[in-house]
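Thread: sanity check for a docking pose with pyridoxal-5'-phosphate

Original post by kr_44:
Hi all, I'm comparing my docking run against an independent structure prediction. Below are the sequence and the ligand SMILES. Could someone generate the full complex and paste the structure tokens? I mainly care about where the ligand ends up relative to the chain.
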Amino acid sequence: MKSLSSIVTAVPASGIRKFFDVVSQMKDVVSLGVGEPDFVTPWRVREASIYSLERGYTHYTSNYGLLELRQAVARKLMETEGLEYNPEDQILITVGVSEGMDLALRAIIDPGDEIIVPEPCYVSYKPCVIFAGGVPVPLCSDAANEFRTSADKVAAAVTPKTKGILLSYPCNPTGATMPTDEMQKIVDIAVDNGLYIISDEIYDRLTYSGRHCCVAALRGAYENTILLNGFSKAYAMTGWRIAYAAARPDIIEQMMKIHQYTILCAPIMSQMAALEALQNGNGDSDEMVTQYDQRRRLIVSGLNQIGLECVLPNGAFYAFPSIKSTGLSSEEFSERLLFEEKVAVVPGNAFGDCGEGHIRCSYATATDKIETALERMEKFLKKL
Ligand SMILES: Cc1ncc(COP(=O)(O)O)c(C=O)c1O
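Reply from moderator J.T.:
Ran it for you. Here is the predicted complex with pyridoxal-5'-phosphate included:
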């Protein structure tokens, strides 16, 4: 038998998955591990999807997605960011931002092209760059600069082989957001070097103070940027697998080709649900964000009180405290905390080497569970 793909076999499976397989077998675990809302999708959204099924909406849609949904996405981008995208050929409905990311990378990468990836970052970015034939170039950031990359670091990482940069603010796992002026400098570097910018803005509505900085809306960024966003986080719709990409028509055309031949279209019932979310779901989303904000303050002050230094993140639903004071590695800390006190967190090194010395605690979980987790963590720390 010949060997499996060397490119794929060289990439390790996600450490998070391995960890959660263990968690799912254990009883009485308080999980601050999973990166998904604990809320159920708002009823109006579920109902819209059920109603569409009752009316017989069970077929393929256009490869681009339902025109009505693309029009609603275009309206949102115009209303919130003043961005004009033609719903006919500049918006593609995808199966999660995950698919959008894969399409965007495959549409821009030739073998050996470098993609700059600020870290710590979402676990799938580097593997997806590799699967697309590219070379990820990680850019480390740390707690001292609130886990934001900088224009200077980006400028220093650009080589003749650089094809693009992947930006994701608010950030998973750190919750960092980027000030507009620094983001503008990064955009300027990308534009000056003719780079593509892939901007994953899945946490845009989960920005707690100030306004979300939409990369495509910055000076000069529109032509270069592939904007990815979706419904999983803001509308508690992780299981629906529905999102969108917006970009120049020639970029969307190449992404659409891959999507057309591999996926055909996103499921119609999820597209109907997404349409309802965009048209009538912002109130529900705002209520969830208000609760995340309260939990954010609770968990961050709790972590600092028990001795795990943590900055107040401005976005997403993750706290990323330092565990350096314990002398344990992030994997040791997470494993021992799980087995000794039954609290699940994610080791920081799952998000890149510079995540070492930290753990990711998701606060997309009920207040009483956060309180119990903090009590158990305190007990754990006292034992060390
Ligand atoms: C930054 C980021 N991008 C993308 C995703 C995946 O999103 P989707 O459910 O739309 O595929 C996640 C999920 O945790 C994420 O944190």
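The CA atoms of residues 95 and 242 lie 5 Å apart. Hope that helps with the comparison, let us know if your pose agrees.
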